[in-house]
Records
---
Amino acid sequence: MTNVRNHPMAALSVLVLGLFMTLLDLTIVNVAIPSILDGLHASLDQVLWVLNAYSLLYAVLLITSARLGDIHGPRKMFAIGVVIFTVASAFSGLAQDPTQLILARGLQGLGSAVLAPQGLPLMMSLFPVEKRGGVFAIYGVIAGLAVIAGPTVGGYLVSHFGWRSIFTVNIPIGVITFALALLLIPDLRPGRKHRLDIFGVALATAGLLGVIYGLIEGQRYDWGVVTGFITIPEIIGAGLVLFAVFLYHQARRNRQKDGEPLLPFEVFKDRNFTLMTLVMAAMGFAGSHPQRPRYGVHLDPGVHHRYPRPAGPSRRRGLGRHQHDPGDGRGVRQRSGRRLPAEPHRARASRPRGRRVEPAA
């Protein structure tokens, strides 16, 4: 048992398990969209935020979480992230309305953000230079498999156990991962104390929030006005400006002797590190791309939407245009003013196949 606890591969297996669990949840929800729509009586906008709340919190908080790992130790932050993610999964499975599910998914994203950046520093400390290439390859392959496996695993769980099972399945896995983390991952601490750059954290968080929120909500508002004089391009532009200020602030702290930057630029002088960062960024973009409406569910009036259908070019344009009708709650309103049936599967059951049902006035 002692040999296992001191073996780097044992620690790597726990890190991979945590990574797989969190990245699986980036795509596993996609196939459950129709069931969530029916089960929680959610609007399309609400269901899209079930997907995007996770991605938003995950992306915005990664830099801050990495620094907290430097301060408090990566094993401790990894375990905290697993606990947050597992508790949030339980809340997601118990959600009784769309708002509860969106909040729980945001909490899941927070847990993932705390957990995810702790793996690389641990691997750098546990493995010698000559073995790191193979270790990073394993880590990257598992990350890719998790993203690819999401729709398949989600489809099986939804078909056999209902949509809540895609969240509750994380509970036993999270408990096991937490126990193994405390048992098998060594408690490595930095040789010197680190400080948290509060101003840098605020700049990075606000900048990333503006850019990512604008990209998520852009199609919904036709890349135009959100409210009053605020537009999507202005939100994205403000986010880019804040992030540019963050980079300038980090450059200044890099030049200071005890600057403690959140983003040390000297690491990018290592060619292998820079290439690995670009590869991981490409994998992250490819993995999160299914979250965009292009791969969403097209709600066809008069068609039972039990299973998702990939949205083609014409469907893709219409996906962001369906708006929840807060007035009487009876249906979903398009921007053209025409009302679609609130429960299209009932409409289909009452008509012969192949005939068109005219929308209600």
---
Amino acid sequence: MTNAEYGYSTDGRTFFMMIQDSFRFSCNFQCYSRMILNYQNRNRIITRNTDTNMKNALAILIVSGILVFFGSGTAVLAQNSKPVYTLERTISLPGNGGYDYLYVDPVTRHLFVTHGSTVNVINLKSGKFIGSVTGLGEDHGVAIDNSLNRGFVSDSRQRALVAFNSQTLKTIKTIHLKGEDEDATILDPASGKVFVFEGDSKQAEVVDPKTLKEVDIIPLGAKPEFAVSDGHGHIYNNLESSSQIAVIDVHSMKVVKKYSLGPCHGPSALALDNTHHRLFTGCRANKGLTVVNADNGDVIQTLPIGAGVDADRYDPETHLIFVSCFDGTTTIIKEESPDKYKVVQVLKTHMGARTMALDPQTHNIYLSSADFEKTNTGYHHRMVPDSYKVLVYKLNNN
């Protein structure tokens, strides 16, 4: 990252990154104070030409500012003796290759896990692997239309949306699309259409799940990431390359608004509190979760998260927001009110566990990952063969 993204000098940026890392270990005020003193002794917060009194004053201001900016989340982490979520079990899955979205079908209680050239399916009642959608190229997003017993998965290698029988998992049709880099895929209840978001083509293609034909293309003007529907005529879509949220009218099939997201840069993950009209966008460049008013685009609050965010989910019953990151952390945030949020846990998961799904019935969260080869310098992104799995985390009764 550049210095400008942090708003600090190189040394200040290093210090700030250490502060962010300290959230994972429930660092308290004394911990921050020791960190400040260590940096004072090494002259790393400010330049060497500044006198000692100024160093002390600035150190106090930095500590105070950090505690105020990051809010009560730090205090909660330090005070809570019992974590909100803990690991319940691990489910091993067959095959190798990359992985992307997970999707929980609340009707059939099946979990769809995209993985290389297959979609693995887990029965959530038994917790067992029950089968796969096979014959794909490189799969990404999944959507299910239970009224038709049809599922849909985007396939960027075939430049297609693949329709399959959601009961038998057999392929019905490969629908070839006009764009490239097929990624996030959702079923919009208001229009009854499937929307496929294409990163390289900077557009969304619309498919009729009944006729299995493409019916429209919506230019977005920037690279899209995840999207959510409010079920009442609007789809909200992260535009990663322009740091905006596009608002799509599903009746006109056009973008009607774009919300700027500063201080969020590089939005990827997106979730919605449909009752209070709040969007939760996970941003990679500044490692933040930004809360946005869905009605007017106002930025309400930004909270710290881990590195490499790729998914977030909102539980309307517990009012918890989950933000999963590649660095092996999932930040759990409590919605105290529509305009007030705090971090309640930084859940240690597994390196690479960046994508996630939420079961609204049990409140379990599911993250997929694999083991990665290590070298003397740390992790490589090369996966260990036959190590792919889904991690299941449960809500504790505090």
---
Amino acid sequence: MNWPESAPDFRNLPIDANVQSTLRYDTGREASWRAMVASDASDVGIPANVTMFFFRWDAGSASILRARAHRPDICLPNTGWNNLRMHASPNEKEKLMQSAINRWKDSDNESVGVLAKWLNGKGAFERELSAIPLQRALQTHDLFLQHVDALGALGRWDEIKRLLTSERFPLDPTVANMYLARCNAQLGEKTASENNWQRALESAGGDVQNLMALGDYAEKNGATGVASQAFESITAANPKMHPAWQGRLRIAQAARDTKAIHAGLAKMLQIWPDDSAIQNDEGYTRLLLATAKDEGRRIKDETRTAEGEMEGRPQCRPSLESSFFLRPRSSDLRSPQDRGAGRGSGEARPEQPPTPDSPRAGLLEREPARDRLRSLRKP
């Protein structure tokens, strides 16, 4: 079992004595850490405390009996147990949801927070707002963000903006500004949105956690410039921050910038030289760039060859300044007799392009209109 011991605020926790007596496991561990968790209700990433348990029952005569005590209705939170029951009986969804609300809405803030997240995850945004009113949501950070998530999912951006600007709940400046930036964008306030993204970037400073949250949130909401700056700030200060490098690669890929992708992979390969995935990706993008460079060189060589063939004919020497003269006028597609007849009679005859095997076809491709070039050479 691999534990994320390098995660922010990672710490081992003592397992409750009641849990030990109920499960009677042989080996167990509980730990918690901080992480950015995507909201089920929208694409808002929020900081959260993650807790994980691991239990092992050694083989033996009593192991089956001990494991039987580890049932979902004992170990899962009430909301998790309701998820299983809903999956087994979809027709009882409304009944089970209301039962969970009635049981947990007046519990402690931590339990109400689990309920709020569960309701949002089920798409019951109106239920979340009615079961957990604003006054209760203002009591904790997680409850407030779940309330904001529900409002955002319902498109009530004006309410979110009023909540954030009134500062009824003190949020981290980075989080508050990036939420405001999204509200501004949803309300069509482009300039205000750009200003708040910049404020969020400035308030994040050198805090890796805030910069990572800002980068992910900005990327999801189309502010790729801000996301790129956030990820680059992280990799400059912490070169071994792999998620930030991944963010830089995603942005370069979205922009279809092969050079930027290869540059990022090359730097990652210097940090993680034994990573086979990075080796393969770096080699592939290097091959793409080499192929594009060879194609450009081939086109340039062909152009030089064509110029050399026309070197002895000054009137046919192409240049960037006069290349547009190489395009034949519509009148040049007619014979001299037709042109003369057209001028003499005052009637324009239908223009007939030369056939592929006509001598004039090749001439028109490589020679300019002589009259115009001769007039250019006259003093």
